[in-house]
UniProtKB/TrEMBL annotation:
The protein, known as: Butyryl-CoA dehydrogenase
Tree of life domain: Bacteria
Region Disordered: start-end pairs: 128-152
Organism placement in taxonomy: Bacteria, Pseudomonadati, Pseudomonadota, Gammaproteobacteria, Enterobacterales
SUPFAM superfamilies: Acyl-CoA dehydrogenase NM domain-like
Length: 152
């Protein structure tokens, strides 16, 4: 398993950069989800680095996680975004007592044992969705060159 305290950490990060870069051009051209990259990260244990050691993860520091994200982003930025969200959610979940302990344990266990991914939904009806633009009924403000929002 990957672990940031091993002597070959720098070599592991270099290999990760190269692995992620192998598909970057084809992923950019196709716009497909980076399944092979995720499978590689899953097989190597990269997806559970932010899971606390008490739950079977590496408990990597923020600096170490940043090194991993940078290595992945150097090779293939879309994959780095997915992994960044994974790490952020695991870090927040480890500090959030609002989640019931069994559910937290399940999320961590799934990441460690199966490379399970976690993310969140963004729903802000008044702002629309990032990929869909403004909700119906909004229009640009012509007095400001079409920028800004105003209700009709």
């Amino acid at each position: 398993m990957i672990h940031p305290e091993r002597d070959d950490w720098a070599r592991q990060l270099t290999a990760l950069r190269q692995q992620m870069a192998e598909q970057a051009a084809s992923l950019d051209a196709s716009g497909e989800f980076p399944w092979r990259n995720i499978d590689h990260l899953r097989a190597g244990g990269w997806l559970s680095l932010a899971v606390p050691p008490s739950c079977g993860g590496a408990g990597a520091s923020l600096a170490q996680l940043q090194q991993v994200i940078a290595a992945i982003a150097w090779g293939e930025p879309a994959t780095a975004l997915i992994v960044c969200m994974q790490y952020l959610h695991h870090l927040r979940l480890a500090e959030n007592d609002a989640w019931h302990a069994p559910l937290r344990q399940q999320v961590f266990h799934d990441a460690v044992e199966h490379g399970g991914l976690i993310n969140s939904l963004r729903v802000e009806p008044e702002l629309g969705l990032p990929g869909a633009g403004r909700p119906a009924g909004h229009r640009g403000d012509p007095s400001r060159g079409g920028l800004g929002h105003q209700r009709p």
